[in-house]
Design goal:
alpha/beta; 4-stranded antiparallel sheet; 3-stranded parallel sheet; 32% helix
Length: 269
């Protein structure tokens, strides 16, 4: 058993910890209230059966309780072995209603490409000067785009960008000559996804403040992009199961055909 000593300012952090650790005793009344709320949500309101995607979205919004605007996440278990090079998929889903998050875009480009990136709304643009700035500790950006000819420059900070998932990649559309298009896509809500070690892909597809229709449209776009990333010649079932949740809420299992683009029941109520 683990004893946690907390304060009102970190009550949200405790809610995250309580997912993984058993709390023996909490004397702070605010923490007790938070823990009680999570217990109520996790024990009493979670549907045991799988839900059609329309119902699942409703449940996730109803179970949201945090004071901040929680992110809505979707997780999909794939029939892949990421250890095999041809099954380590990556991709980009362009969400019609965005992610609800302000995205800061960094672009490595020169000349007309740099001008186009700035005109499209890039937050920071440069080449060698930007390289030196990042080497000096500058990391005020959420995605990195580069023209092909500047990838040799970007490669010098691969050890900085790579572990953070920020290294530009042609498969992600972040190594391109069409920098303006890439910047606009990132700003408008393009979300990157990558299969993890256990064959799971997850992504934030909006906020709980979004309407149900907006979330469903984003889920549709994400699932279509995920199916498009299916490796050629893959044998067996590609999509195995899926769930949806908010940042602080429990996961709700989804009836798979309702989010499978190859199914006749895809996105049907």
């Amino acid at each position: 058993m683990m004893r946690l000593v907390t304060y009102p300012r970190v009550k949200e952090l405790l809610a995250v910890y309580s997912r993984f650790f058993s709390v023996e005793k909490i004397t702070n009344p605010i923490v007790e209230e938070v823990n009680s709320r999570r217990h109520t949500v996790n024990k009493s309101l979670i549907p045991k059966e799988v839900k059609n995607i329309h119902d699942a979205v409703k449940v996730v919004k109803e179970l949201s309780w945090a004071k901040f605007d929680e992110t809505v996440d979707i997780s999909v278990n794939l029939g892949l072995d990421p250890r095999k090079p041809n099954q380590s998929i990556k991709g980009v889903a362009r969400l019609p209603n965005g992610t609800g998050k302000k995205v800061r875009v960094c672009v490595f480009a020169t000349g007309q490409d740099a001008e186009a990136a700035l005109a499209a709304g890039a937050d920071v643009v440069g080449a060698e000067d930007l390289l030196l700035k990042i080497q000096g500790g500058f990391m005020a950006f959420d995605t990195v785009i580069a023209t092909p000819e500047l990838m040799s420059t970007v490669g010098k900070i691969g050890k900085v960008l790579g572990p953070r998932g920020l290294m530009p990649n042609p498969k992600m559309g972040t190594v391109t000559k069409e920098v303006a298009r890439a910047v606009k896509a990132a700003k408008e809500g393009a979300v990157q996804f990558k299969v993890e070690k256990k064959g799971i892909v997850h992504a934030g597809i909006g906020k709980v403040s979004f309407s149900e229709e907006a979330l469903l449209e984003n889920i549709r776009s994400f699932m279509v992009a995920l199916l498009d990333a299916k490796p050629e010649g893959l044998k067996g079932k590609y999509l195995r199961n899926a769930s949806i949740s908010s940042t602080m809420g429990p996961g709700v299992h989804i009836d798979l055909p309702s989010v499978d683009p190859s199914s006749a029941r895809f996105m049907l109520d």
